[in-house]
Amino acid sequence: MQTSCLSAAERDAAAAANALQGARKRAERYGRRRLLTASSPAEPALPPAESSSSPRRLYSPRDRALLIIYTTVAIDMLGSALTVPVMPFLVEALGGDASSLGLLFSTFAVAQIGAGLWMGAASDRLGRRPILLVSLAGSAVGMLGSAQAPTFRALLGWRFLLGAFSGTSATANAYIADITAPSERPKLMSWIGVIASLCFMFGPGV
Description:
The chain has helices at about 1-40, 60-80, 85-95, 100-125, 130-145, 150-165, 170-180, 185-200. By secondary structure, the chain is mainly alpha-helical.
């Protein structure tokens, strides 16, 4: 009886030892698996595949904004360039001479310098688009007034008004800086100068 009791206790102890050893092995395997998972690099997430049925956008909003900016600058510059060959005849018809012609161009240049100052500051407070629209409207009024000026003094005043609204380059450069990355700005801003040169190259011939 005592022997059978001892053998049963030994069997229980052996089963408990086997269970404990199995638990230790499972714990070791689980810890090794977690260690391998943590040390392995995560696979990079692949970008979602574009659907062939989705339409491609040819022009982004930024491209459309740049097109509007360059068109605005071209209209402003071309309007000034078109009047260059006409001004000597207009001044002569109004009783002016060569010095009057020089004064006319100087007045326009001085007003244009001031336009770059006030339009740049105003665009920071009011926005780029409103100032560009105001510039085009003011230039249109100045050109119409210059064409209908009855005297040289009136022509001088209209040319001053035209120059005061001809500062689109400063606002255009600020607009480009707002919507582009710093690495792209030199290339995109250089197109402002290219457009101005082209307008004054072909505008008088037109």
